[in-house]
Write a structure and sequence with these properties.
The protein is of the alpha/beta class. Helix content is 34%, strand content 18%. The protein has 10 helices and 16 strands. Strand 13 and strand 14 form a beta hairpin. The radius of gyration is 22 Å and the shape is elongated.
Length: 391
Amino acid sequence: MAEAWAGPQQRPGIFRWAALGLMALLAACQAVPHGRAPGAARPTTTGSTPLTSALPEDQARHRIALLVPITGPNAVIGQSIANAANLAIIDTGGKRLRMTTYDTGTGAIGAAQRAIADGNRLFLGPLLAADVRQIAPIAGKAGIPIISFSNDDEIAGNGVYVMGFSPEQSIRRVVGYARSKGITRFAGLMPSGTNYGRNASINLIKVTEASGAQVVAMQTYARDQKSLAGAVSALGKAQGYDAVLIADSGRSALTAAPLIRKGSSPQAHILGTELWNADAALGASPSVRGAWYASVADGLFNQLAAKYRARYGKAPSRLASLGYDAVLLAVRIGAEWEVGTAFPTAKLEDKGGFSGIDGAFRFGGSHVAERALEVQEVGGAIVSAAPKGFD
């Protein structure tokens, strides 16, 4: 467990509130205590004995829990999110918000139970959809909303909000841009055996048909070179396509693109999803250069990354911005949240939305963060800028 604090702020406008925190990226940081409260023992349980709080009594601050993997296979991402969240606590300053980090790497249920025992009224995280499914009933029973960093839309609802980058929105944005350029016949390459690939397949068909175009071919593949080569070869049997969406990481795109260029539709435009935004190597590949993908804008994230490197001595994960923006969201709503009461969940569904490192977003009734996305060209410029807000 690790703790950080943030305090009272004036209530600015719906987007201006975040700008105040973002401008603080350029400011010097103050020291923030890290680790368990002095003299406090880690909460424990024996058999059916309830957990007891490891934190001192506090009547002046909101308590929020950050649930991320600090150990285990996803520890690098989880620690990066935690570090960025702590930067947001520092940048917003003050003494009204207490954030405690709980490690889901040792078990999401145990982390959630400790967070509840400590009196937290809002969960930021977990990262993984499977962890959210495990703790949602526990949090729901305690009346605690969850703002998850997952990108799985299926977990949204019943007190769970999905803040991760949605593949459905990315596909809708990049397909819409391709349609504006006259492309009507689409193909898809989707990883098999993953929720991401399955959702991407469904959404490519849905979004394409809604735009008056069609999907003429779609192939799935295991994540190995032989399977991917076979899927590209099978696409070649289709009656030509104007664009092919590779709904996978930049690494898969680097493997597939040269094969597509040698196939039956060498001039097809290559499209990608928000996953490509985390792979700087794409721009060095001639076969991928010029491809389009939709993602959140990088301008403010680059500033955050510079500050992160200065403080932690390494580059952040691209998902680190989720931690920073989640804290900004909590600080903003915290200005109208009475200490000691339940988190005002209805304020998460403000139609005007919020803003942060990754631009404008809002949850609405879907409980999935709707984002303002831009379309980027690999190795080139932004070809379609992200909207600044919502109507």
